[in-house]
Amino acid sequence: MDFRQLRNFAQIVELASITAAAERLAIAQPALSRQVKALEAELGVTLLRRHGRGVMPTEEGIRLAERARAILEEVEDLAWELGGTRRSLSGTLTLGLPPTVAEMLATHLVSRTMTEFPEVKLRIVSGFSGHVQDWLVRGKIDLGVAYEGQRSPAIRSRPVVLEQLFLIQHPAGAACPDGTPIPAREALSLPLILPAPEHGLRAQVAAIAQAAGLPLDVVLEIDILPAMLAFVERGLGATILPPVSVAEQVRAGRLVARPIVADPIDRTLILMSPAHRPGSRLTSGFSEFLIAEVHRLVASGEWPGTRL
Predict the structure, then answer these.
(1) Which of 63, 85, 97, 166 has its CB surrounded by the most CB atoms within 10 Å?
(2) 128-135 contacts: CB < 8 A, separation 24 or more?
(3) Tell me, what DSSP letter sits at residue 88?
(4) C-alpha atoms less than 13 angstroms from C-alpha of 86 in its C-beta half-sphere
(5) pLDDT per residue over 224-283, tens digit each?
(6) Do 150 and 121 touch, CB atoms closer than 8 A?
(7) Is the confidence at residue 83, as pLDDT, over 60?
């Protein structure tokens, strides 16, 4: 076993394909396959399982790829440090964010990344939490931020911040248009504009209403955040969202955000990474950077309605 074999095996696992890895490494595919077989023979374990779309690492394969990546990055770091410099993060990273978080975090993260890590190319995609988790499992993104819901063995998750949900109303329809708190029972009794039942937010609100013995009056089901807010601005109903997602409309006086009290509704924002793919120096370093930036926004009051 040598560094070359470790590097090549880690690349196969990252791309989930011997063919794709051979193209990226400029190595003939049969030669790369022979390297894997030689590693398996040397270690006495099966490292990869073949399927129609490529390969999937076994548990032993995942452990080898993780250790290989860590060893190779330690060697690279050592070379940089011996040369009198410290290696910064570099490479391309794709991050998935839910729409309500993207409103606050996307522009901030891009700006801070350009300043702190100019060699990192950050790509951000937005989708509801279920979509972000699916993209992560399928290898479409490197890291994902989502709201905690159903756990998956394919996902590693770290809690980032707790976000309180507010009742969002048109000022004319609010009994207290100055953002006065409202009891949960009263908020859930109003005509509401919510996402479809399979959406995590809708499921959470429905569960709370059911526990309180309240039938939800859902006048519109909309999964598109701007469209949902547009209908709330027209006074067709209220909705339940984190205040950061309506900060601009509240400042302009077009909407009112009222804290829900008595039985507050909150949810945990988590940072997700794939459990079946080895982490890289870039993903682990950027994870710490992202969490630190979120905590800084919360501590400074720039991200309202949240707590660490």
Answers:
(1) 166
(2) 128/98, 128/99, 128/195, 128/199, 128/200, 128/223, 129/98, 129/200, 130/198, 130/199, 130/200, 131/96, 132/96, 132/97, 132/98, 132/272, 133/272, 135/96
(3) P
(4) 2
(5) 888 999 999 999 999 999 888 888 898 898 999 999 888 888 889 999 998 877 667 788
(6) no
(7) no
Residues 236, 221 contacting (CB under 8 angstroms): no
Q: Can you tell me the mean pLDDT for 170-180?
A: 74
DSSP 8-state symbol, 123: E
Give the number of residues written for the chain: 308
Report the 10 Å Cβ neighbour count for 295: 15
Distance CA 69, CA 8 (A): 10
pLDDT band at 81 (very low <50, low <70, confident <90, very high): low
CA distance 261 to 239: 15
Q: What percent of the chain clears pLDDT 90, i.e. is strictly above it?
A: 36
What's the pTM?
0.68
For residue 137, the Cα-to-chain-centroid distance in whole angstroms is 12
For residues 165 and 278, the answer to whether their CB atoms sit within 8 Å is no
Phi, psi dihedral angles at 179 (to 5 degrees): 85, 25
